[in-house]
């Protein structure tokens, strides 16, 4: 149970009920936010960030967490109509990923709900919430945001209905969609609303999207180029056009100076304005330094712990964005590929706040970000970055313009180590080990890589270090936009060397994915053999789940790679997926006979011998013994004796 009463009063959280609004003496509310998550007043949760940011701007903000959409809709009515707008988010995850497994089975829990209870938000929560609000208050603007809205802003493949769906704007009826991290566009929206500009006139704010009638001209902006996409209807009839669309969307999402995208859907046009440039350190600090309680709202005190909060309550996020561009990952589609880093002062201030929490025992669970080791990294010449269209700065090779110096991170880790209330700060985020072996780096960068690796392994591993090679096949890794598995071997060798030199008993925990586009059954068999040779019994594994706005999902649906337009194999049937997945667990008895049977069908007896050497050797010895005893009993003929001797 979370203890909050001795440190905070109810007014320290944004109000969630009419009674809490009344206690503040408000006669109206400027913005009411609806979220599919429980309300946790912490910078890791989008509704809290938006609410605190608007509050800091002088607005009266309330949050309605996990409203009941099944009853008489009283949760949607209890606070009345806001002065400015309703804000809607499905929560920190796409609601369908939150609800269903890779096999489309309903999950039994929800990490963003007290006690992990499932069923507290609807499928396609963004659409459901928006439709209810537009029906109840047709004249009140609805702004839609969050990761579900970001990743569904254009025609997208929806794995759970197994079909292409149009932009979420078409289904939700929202007046404006804010994609990506919302601080910059929301501040501009509020600034213009306060100047008297109606929301229906806000058509040229970066990082927003909206719908207009097809016959209507686009709002004028002389600084933007326009890039029309194939219509939703064209995508439905031609998978190649859908794939081509994705490449434009990904490239423009990750460009410093992007084009405005348009896509026709029926009688309307979806307009997606280009994103803002990356946030400055000062802007990001301002967001993280808001007066969060860092705790769930007191309404949950008797309802059990919230798993997602328990996981991050003693962690610190140092930066946003990821330039890895992994084919199966949505981080860059939502946060962008450019890194926005907090100042050391802001991070240490948060460390100090955590150290004052009543149940803190001195251990930080993570000092990281979307990837552990990208803090403070950017292009050496930012003008080159501003023209770049590469979706990844480190694949197929590390960009020569990328500064991979790890010194700032190493210094920050050491500064946290010196905090009097910190016993140890662990790195829980995944480490991109490929950047530590950048052959094109300067000598200074290479020295920083060695110093970082030493500091990381010696002082910041909680017994197990997470890394994500994802696969062992170069062919699959190329599609994943991940480095060769040879680099993982190199990193593990250095990890073991440092551990041995310091007499540390620590492990690497590698993450792997089965059934990824491009992965064939023999690729998974090779993965089993490689991990067997390295003495790994895998725990952190997952079956590929197609999510909107990723290269891998486009391949899964269309069968072609959106950049090369080449046909690419993808395991789609349940049987294909199960056959690939079982190789991850070669060490479990229930899979061993099945694996042997499959390998026999491919005539890969060498793999059987490698994976199950003891059993095969026993069998071979028994067979040999049987042959030997039979030989003794049988008296050979002259001819057979002659054949043996010759």
UniProtKB/TrEMBL annotation:
**Stretches with biased composition (Basic residues):** 624-646
Q: Which residues form the Radical SAM core domain?
A: 308-588
Alphabetized Gene3D superfamilies for the sequence:
tm_1862 like domain (3.80.30.20)
Keyword Protein biosynthesis assigned to the entry: answer is no
Q: Which cofactor does it need?
A: [4Fe-4S] cluster
Indicate which residues the UniProt annotation says bind [4Fe-4S] cluster: 322, 326, 329
List the SUPFAM superfamilies hit by this protein, alphabetically.
Radical SAM enzymes
Q: How is the cofactor bound?
A: Binds 1 [4Fe-4S] cluster. The cluster is coordinated with 3 cysteines and an exchangeable S-adenosyl-L-methionine.
Q: Where is the composition biased (Basic and acidic residues)?
A: 613-623
Spans annotated as Disordered: 613-646
- The reply on keyword S-adenosyl-L-methionine is yes
Going by the UniProt record, its keywords in alphabetical order are:
4Fe-4S, Iron, Iron-sulfur, Metal-binding, S-adenosyl-L-methionine
Q: Which PANTHER family match?
A: UPF0313 PROTEIN YGIQ (PTHR32331)
Protein family: Belongs to the UPF0313 family.
Name this polypeptide is given: YgiQ family radical SAM protein
């Amino acid at each position: 149970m979370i203890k909050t009463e001795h440190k905070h009063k109810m007014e320290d959280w944004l109000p969630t009920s009419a009674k809490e609004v009344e206690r503040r003496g408000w006669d109206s509310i400027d913005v009411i936010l609806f979220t599919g998550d429980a309300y946790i007043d912490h910078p890791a949760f989008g509704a809290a960030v938006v609410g605190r940011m608007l509050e800091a701007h002088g607005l009266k903000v309330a949050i309605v967490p996990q409203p009941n959409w099944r009853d008489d809709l009283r949760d949607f009515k209890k606070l009345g109509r806001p002065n400015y707008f309703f804000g809607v988010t499905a929560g920190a995850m796409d609601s369908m990923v939150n609800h269903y497994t890779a096999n489309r089975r309903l999950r039994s829990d929800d990490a963003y709900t007290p006690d992990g209870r499932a069923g507290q938000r609807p499928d396609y929560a963004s659409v459901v919430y928006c439709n209810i609000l537009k029906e109840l208050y047709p004249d009140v603007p609805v702004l839609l945001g969050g990761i579900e809205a970001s990743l569904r802003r254009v025609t997208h493949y929806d794995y759970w209905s197994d079909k292409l769906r149009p932009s979420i704007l078409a289904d939700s009826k929202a007046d404006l969609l804010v994609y990506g991290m919302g601080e910059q566009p929301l501040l501009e929206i509020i600034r213009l609303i306060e100047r008297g500009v109606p929301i229906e006139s806000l058509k040229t704010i970066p990082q927003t999207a909206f719908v207009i009638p097809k016959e209507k001209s686009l709002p004028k902006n002389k600084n933007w180029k326009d890039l029309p996409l194939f219509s939703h209807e064209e995508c439905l009839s031609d998978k190649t056009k859908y794939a081509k669309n994705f490449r434009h969307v990904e490239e423009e999402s990750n460009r410093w100076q992007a084009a405005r995208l348009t896509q026709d859907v029926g009688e309307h046009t979806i307009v997606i304005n280009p994103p803002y440039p990356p946030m400055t350190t000062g802007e990001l600090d301002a967001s993280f330094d808001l007066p969060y309680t860092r705790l769930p709202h007191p309404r949950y005190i008797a309802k059990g712990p919230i798993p997602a909060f328990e996981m991050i309550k003693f962690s610190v996020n140092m930066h946003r964005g990821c330039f890895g561009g992994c084919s199966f990952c949505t981080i860059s589609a939502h946060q962008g590929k450019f890194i926005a880093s907090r100042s050391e002062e802001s991070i240490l201030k948060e460390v100090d706040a955590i150290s004052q929490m009543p149940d803190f025992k001195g251990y930080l669970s993570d000092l990281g970000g979307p990837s552990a080791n990208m803090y403070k990294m950017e292009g050496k010449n930012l003008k080159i970055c501003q023209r770049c269209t590469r979706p990844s700065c480190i694949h197929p090779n590390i960009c020569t313009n990328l500064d991979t110096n790890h010194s700032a991170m190493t210094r920050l880790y050491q500064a946290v180590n010196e905090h009097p209330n910190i016993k140890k700060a662990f790195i829980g985020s995944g480490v991109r080990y490929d950047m530590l072996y950048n052959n094109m780096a300067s000598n200074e960068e290479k020295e920083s890589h060695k110093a970082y690796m030493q500091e990381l392994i010696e002082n910041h591993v909680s017994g197990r270090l997470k890394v994500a090679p994802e696969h062992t096949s170069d062919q699959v890794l190329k599609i994943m936009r991940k480095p060769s598995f040879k680099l993982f071997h190199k990193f593990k060798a250095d990890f073991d060397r440092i551990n041995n030199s310091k007499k540390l008993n620590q492990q690497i925990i590698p993450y792997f994915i089965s059934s990824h586009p491009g992965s064939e059954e023999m690729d998974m068999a090779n993965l089993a053999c490689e991990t067997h040779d390295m003495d790994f019994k895998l725990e952190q594994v997952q079956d590929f789940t197609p999510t909107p706005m990723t290269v891998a999902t486009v391949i899964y649906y269309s069968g072609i790679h959106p950049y090369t337009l080449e046909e690419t194999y993808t395991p789609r049937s349940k049987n294909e997926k199960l056959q690939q997945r079982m190789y991850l667990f070669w060490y479990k008895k229930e899979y061993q006979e099945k694996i042997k049977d499959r390998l026999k069908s491919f005539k890969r007896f060498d793999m059987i011998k490698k994976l199950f050497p003891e059993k095969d050797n026993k069998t071979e010895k028994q067979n040999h013994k049987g042959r030997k005893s039979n030989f003794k009993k049988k008296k050979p003929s002259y001819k057979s004796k002659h054949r043996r001797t010759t």
